[in-house]
Amino acid sequence: MKKLSIILVLAAGVTIVGCSDVKRKPGSVYMPDMAYSRAYETYADHSNLAEQGIFYNSQPVSGTIARDRVLPFSIKKDAAGDTVNYYAARQVQNPLPPLNEKEMKEVERLYLVNCGICHGPKLDGNGPIYKGGEGPYPAKPAQLVGDAKYESMPEGQMYYSVEYGKNLMGSYASQLSSKQRWSIIHYIKAKQGKTSAAPAAAATPTAAQDSTGTEKK
Fold first, then answer.
1. Residue from 194, 192, 211 nearest 203 by CA
2. Coiled-coil stretches, from where to where (predicted)?
């Protein structure tokens, strides 16, 4: 009986000690950054990170490409008064494949929303802002279809203007993603191709016709 009492007392003592709030020093952590995550929620307060010696600028890691994006434009913006890079952009090829019918409809919508106000729904430079000279803007915007200057302009040079802006046209880099900008240039070139492919030989008189196009008698 006496032995049993001693055993019960010891067991109770072990239980009390085991359940007490004893502060234990943890052992070494092999990979503390994984054990104690530094991850922050998107809209959490990041203002105290610098105080902790953590660099964070909310920008993507340099050299990375976001999903569904194309490689960054390789040509830098010209310094004021310079045009070297503008002409160097002629060598840059459109990285996107030609648009299919479904994609063309979506890109047409993007064009009308972002570009049509100036260059017009028909790409003739007669958008609402000009309106045949009666609109609020007195100078006619670039006529993308029907003007040899723009129909012969390489895609890379055209992209430069959309990326950085050119003359009175501002940059659209904040309104459109790089993929959308290249897609719109595909759309413009497709429209230009339709007009340039129109037969023009019929207007040239043949040897059997006079200058008016009527047959000689």
1. 211
2. none
Radius of gyration of the chain (CA): 35
**124, 132 in Cβ contact below 8 A?**
no
Give residue-wise pLDDT tens across range 66-75. 777 788 899 9
CA dist 126 and 142 (Å) reads 9
> Which token pair is 113?
């929303």
**Which residues, listed in sequence order, are joined to residue 166 by a DSSP beta bridge?**
169
Residues 76-109 have pLDDT tens digits of 999 999 999 999 999 999 999 999 999 999 999 9
Q: What is the pTM of this model?
A: 0.63
Residue 102 · residue 109 · CB < 8 Å: no
The domains found in the chain, sorted by start residue, are: 84-197 (1.10.760.10)
